[in-house]
Amino acid sequence: MIIVGGSYREVCAYPEWDRIYGSGGRAAVAVSGLAPGSVLHTYAYSGWAADVRATMASFGVRAEVVEIEKELVFEYYHPLSKEPVPKASAGLPRITVSGEVVLSFGMLEGPATVVAGRAVHDPQSDSPEAAFSASGSRAGELAYVVRDYMLAAADSSQEAMDVATRIMADEGASVVVARHAIGGASVYVGDTKPRLVPAYISDTWFKIGSGDVFCAAFAHYWGERRLDPVEAADLASRSVAHFNDGHRLPLPAPHALSALVPQPDTAHGGRVFLSGPAATLPQRWLLDQARWWLLDLGSEVFSPFHEYGERLAASAGPALAGLRACTAVLALADGGDPGTSAVIGHARAVGVPVVVLAEAVAATDLAVHAGMSCEIARDFTTALYRAHLAGMR
User: Fold this and answer.
1) Which domain holds residue 369?
2) β-strands 195-197, 271-275: how paired?
3) How far apart (Å, rounded) are the C-alpha atoms in residues 166 and 173?
4) What's the pTM?
């Protein structure tokens, strides 16, 4: 397989992460065991271009690198945070590739020109310049992979199906795959109704690069193995669950993914009770972030702090009543907040599942939480993910 995509530095504060990957590099490593002899065409900062070549070579991937003078870095506070996208220099030489199966990503440095028998394209944005056809690319068969929000039309009278059909018509694609934020996808083929592919559960949730891995797996199974697009998307979804559990690469063979469990199939994300201290600015920031991201994932959120504000101390009764109406609890346990400890105990007493975020919790307190059969999450994003899933069960 030929992979065309950027090689960028990625820095995350929590959990700590500082690596050179980018969409192209990660996808190439992902399929290196499934598709031996793959080739990566990429741009890379001259200061670490040799590292890109060496890393790819260690996985059996040949790297064709166009060196650039500007270091491009993606910075994240946590894996879900949306940070400014770095800007590349203009006027760089265009990458041109041809092959039987090509996976292409939109790149900060500019689009590549692709000629392929089968191509999978992830534009990485809704910019017209990132479209497959905009660079003069062409393929015998084309699959488009996008995030589901990109099928939301500006015209509210249009459905996602209408937008997918327009992409097929404009780009000459036979398949459009819309990835979902929490995992899984919708697969559009022709003018038939989309087929839903489930997300699969992972113990931890390292979200950075999950879309790259989905595209890599889909390109292998649909492009190289020529599986049905729904079957290929299902294997891609399973591959993402494997990857998310600690950034595990390269991807394993399909038989190693067969035991993965689908996420609950519900129409909503459940209702999560959010509890944590808010006495300091960092504590308040974390509480606000947890509420915002749970809502973004699709959960309903009941947070006594946000609900009652200054009246919280006098609202214990209504808060406990709200707990009984929730399907899960996310407890931000750092700081040893007595109120949060009480919520954990009450929730477990009435059978409500509890996910505890414990980045700096005393061992004795952690033993108590574990003894009450709470789920313990060591990083913020995993805690959000596990609480969202717990609420859907």
Assistant:
1) 271-392
2) unpaired
3) 10
4) 0.95
